[in-house]
Write a structure and sequence with these properties.
Elements lengths: L7 H5 L16 H13 L2 E6 L1 H9 L23 H6 L2 E9 L6 H21 L4 E3 L3 H9 L3 E8 L8 H9 L2 E5 L23 H13 L2 E3 L5 H10 L5 E5 L13 H4 L2 H4 L2 E4 L8 H20 L4 H14 L7 H15 L4 E3 L19 H10 L4 H25 L1
Parallel strand pairs: 1-2, 2-4, 3-4, 4-5, 5-6, 7-8, 8-9
Amino acid sequence: MVRHLIAALALFAPLFAAPALAQPAPPTRVELARIDRILHRTPLIDGHNDLPWEIRESFGGDLARVDLAGDTTKLTPPLHTDIPRLRAGRLGAQFWSVYVPAALKGRDSTEAVQRQIDLTRRIVQAHPGTFEQADSAADIVRIHRAGRIASMFGIEGGEAINGDLALLREFRASGVLYMTLTHSTTNGWVDSATDAPKYGGLSPFGEDVVREMNRIGMLVDLSHVSQGAMEDALRVSTAPVIFSHSSARALAHHPRNVPDEVLRLLPANGGVVMVNFFPVFLSDEFWRWSAARAAEEARLKALNPAAPDAVKEGLVVWGRANPQPATSVATVADHIEHIRRVAGVDHVGIGSDFDGVSALPEGLGGVDAYPALFVELMRRGWSDADLAKLAGGNVLRALRGAERVAAAH
């Protein structure tokens, strides 16, 4: 969830635009028929969408202000998600992120997630012809076959359990199917990828959290955690893990991404990396550009503390001299293919981060765009069977594995 960390990018996007990329040929009818055939049998499952938090932050949590049955690109700010585009994108199941900012601690963090669960549940209940809550792999398959979009909760930020396994169990009883162990900061029991380490991975209590998640059938999500924490969790977990929205560190060296050393551990665990669409996690050039822009903004604010218009104009000038680097559908496909080469085709999925980011690759601007990614991979020679694994087959297998481990306790 980074949309509000660098939200100003969206305001200046036309000024920072990269040179246009060569556009791929539009999908043919044969390609679209292939996609429909694959996704009729196997639900397309997205590991991470931040719509609930975006509705809370930008619209006060008021669903009356957000007509998801209409065109949400016309809202201020526009959204990446609405029902017509979900249908156009052929989505079969969504893990809705019930995010908690790392700045919230203790009961404030717990209550924020509880409110996010309530908001997400109200979204699902407001559109019964489109959404239905799922609590298992079997539910996902059943709901998809009925023509609806299976909807699951994923907590983004283990701060929400406030160091209490009883709260973890209560969240699972509320329908939460995964928990990201931490977000952007190291918490009381696990190191974050983007903060100073305290434990070299997981603390002893952090290991207990992983074991308890295995016991109650909640997927362990390792997006946002340090490499040490990834390795510790893979050592401790007896159930498949997921990375709900991460990419390949070998291609983009952001610490949020999954290094090859960890990718090589996934076959023994059965876990899945669900590839993120945020350009900062896809391109070193884009990451450097966004960091440089943030530094320039900080410099301008320090020089103009009482003149926000001067800051805005200074960023416009900077943006003209430093256009935003280009990323595309092909960039995302490169990350998917790298994970396939290192971990295997059984260990890759899709975790877009829609409505949680302020920039997206060209051709992947909203939830209607998933077919563009499948077309790109088809043109690279992917088989129907392998595309089905990417779409949702791998995640269903991982979830079933977690359910078997829980049933054995």
